[in-house]
Amino acid sequence: MIRTQIQLTDEQHRALKRWSSELRISLAEAVRRCVEDRLHRLPDEERRPDRVREALEVVGRYGSGRSDVAAHHDEHLADAYGS
Known about the structure:
Elements: H1 10-23, H2 27-40, H3 44-58, H4 69-81
């Protein structure tokens, strides 16, 4: 994790403290949850770099054992689905 410092208004701090107390979590965890919630609400075009990074992390991780998949993917799908 990266340590950072932020400034909140008095009302933001009071509300966040109250909410974190109700959930029995730290103030830091409450801030992380708020940030995470907001980031998940971003429009797709703003989240695209994250989605591309996540997709690239799994490239090649799940091999089929076949070396000709790119050239013959339609046939392989038909075999897999019994078509």
